[in-house]
Design brief:
The complex is a heterodimer of chains A (about 160) and B (about 240).
Chain A (H helix, E strand, L loop, with lengths): L25 E8 L16 H7 L1 E5 L5 H13 L6 E8 H6 L1 E2 L4 E2 L1 E5 L8 E6 L6 H11 L6 E3 L7
Antiparallel strand pairs in A: 1-2, 1-3, 2-7, 3-8, 4-5, 6-7
Chain B lengths: L15 H18 L5 H12 L12 H13 L4 H5 L2 H4 L5 H20 L15 H12 L16 H14 L8 E4 L5 E7 L2 E7 L4 E7 L5 E8 L7 H6 L2
Antiparallel strand pairs in B: 1-2, 2-3, 3-4, 4-5
Classes of the chains: A alpha+beta (about 160), B alpha+beta (about 240).
Chain lengths: ~160, ~240
């Protein structure tokens, strides 16, 4: 399980951090076609692994600090790594919306958004389950809460014009 | 072994329509039966483009599955041929079992041609492959993904996970159920996802002998289940929900 709590959202969790993640920030996540997308065009819950929510963190890019070359580079590499992969898109999530999601059974927050910048990518942040649990069924519920927020998607080539 | 399929002896028959049918059959079967040639994979790919209603994994190396699924269209060969082939064996397309299957399929196919001149090749495109085989084919396609398929830290499905997913499919599809979307998560989970009438079921396996799921009905009723043995799916209440 991960080590973070709500208190960690209020401090920089990496020495490379440009600052804590604010509720007003927009976050990006690369989605791959067709791997992450259902036949109805919705992002599949499996696009968010339960292991990411529980332990590793679901990686996102902070728009404010993102480097278009890094995002496009990662996306291109992933698209080209598999012949049947068609293209990539950018899902855009509001940090505040994610932090506002709650787990009805307890009334507590569902997710944490943690600033864990990397040396070669200071825009990196991660989404974790706010609950310290390894129960897969609970983590499945959480990802079903989160996945609709990935449906606000932009073509990757618009990134250069943003 | 060269398994080239020679149908020339049947061309002696005078019926033009029969000859035409034979010709079409030859053209379409040849790429499958010359699977030891370099052109096998290319041909398979080409044919797949032409006949989109026929299901097989041209990306994979599961020759015996591809052949049996293809041939079973008109022969009414038990479609379980493909799903019953042991997974480990299917990793090696040139083992004796595959040869045996090939010969058996060829023989049945020839029999059908001999006994009926009403073989209409176009009918091969209209019959659907069973949902079980579609699902298993999807799982085997996912088995081709390697570590790193979804970026840094993402992992491929373990062999145990793939086998369990196939077992689950066979057990679930003993009933007529809604077809799930089957996908791989970056932690190696094989996931089965249903979203119908605003009912959501998210079920998956990790290769540890168990499955887990989360269900939420359109009325807000939720079911959480963890660590359920694969075979218990037969009696699981969730099965009643996804049965058509």
């Amino acid at each position: 399980m991960h080590k973070y709590t709500i208190e960690d959202e209020k401090k920089m969790c990496s020495k490379y951090s440009p600052g804590i993640v604010l509720n007003s920030e927009e976050l990006y996540r690369i989605t791959l076609h067709p791997d992450h997308i259902s036949s109805e065009g919705e992002v599949l819950p499996a696009a968010i692994s339960t292991d990411d929510l529980e332990r590793r963190g679901f990686s996102v890019e902070r728009e404010r600090y993102s480097d278009n070359d890094i995002i496009c580079g990662i996306a291109d590499k992933q698209v080209q790594s598999k012949e049947s992969r068609e293209h990539a898109e950018l899902a855009k999530l509001g940090c505040g919306e994610i932090r506002n999601l709650s787990y009805e059974q307890t009334g507590n927050r569902s997710f944490l958004v943690i600033d864990d910048a990397l040396e070669n990518n200071i825009a990196h942040a991660s989404i974790y389950s706010a609950m310290q649990t390894s129960k897969k069924s609970i983590l499945r519920k959480l990802r079903n809460q989160l996945s609709p927020f990935l449906n606000n998607r932009l073509p990757l080539d618009t990134l250069t014009t943003l | 072994m060269n398994t080239c399929f020679d149908l020339s002896s049947f061309e002696q028959k005078s019926s033009i329509s029969f000859k035409s049918t034979i010709s079409k059959i030859k053209d379409n079967l040849a790429p499958f039966l010359n699977y030891e040639t370099d052109s096998y994979r290319k041909n398979l790919h080409d044919v797949s483009k032409i006949k989109k209603n026929i299901f097989y994994n041209y990306d994979s190396s599961y020759f015996s599955d591809e052949l049996s699924v293809f041939l079973s269209k008109d022969l009414e060969v038990n479609e379980k041929y493909s799903s019953d082939i042991d997974y480990n064996r299917s990793l090696h397309p040139f083992i004796k079992e595959s040869d045996f299957l090939l010969e058996k399929q060829k023989s049945k196919y020839l029999e059908s041609i001999e006994t009926s001149s009403k073989v209409i090749f176009s009918s091969t495109t209209s019959r659907r492959v069973s949902p079980t085989n579609i699902a298993i084919g999807r799982i085997r396609t996912l088995s081709l993904l390697e570590d790193g398929w979804n970026g840094l830290g993402s992992v491929a499905a373990k062999k145990e996970t793939l086998l369990e997913a196939e077992d689950l499919v066979r057990l679930m599809f003993e009933n007529t159920i809604r077809e799930p979307t089957i996908s791989l998560a970056s932690d190696g989970e094989i996931n089965f996802y249903w979203n119908f009438n605003k009912n959501i079921l998210d079920l998956g396996v990790f290769g540890d002998g168990y499955y887990s799921y989360y269900f939420c009905s359109n009325e807000g009723k939720e079911i959480f289940a963890d660590d359920k043995p694969i075979k218990s799916i037969i009696n699981d209440e969730i099965l009643n929900i996804i049965v058509v």
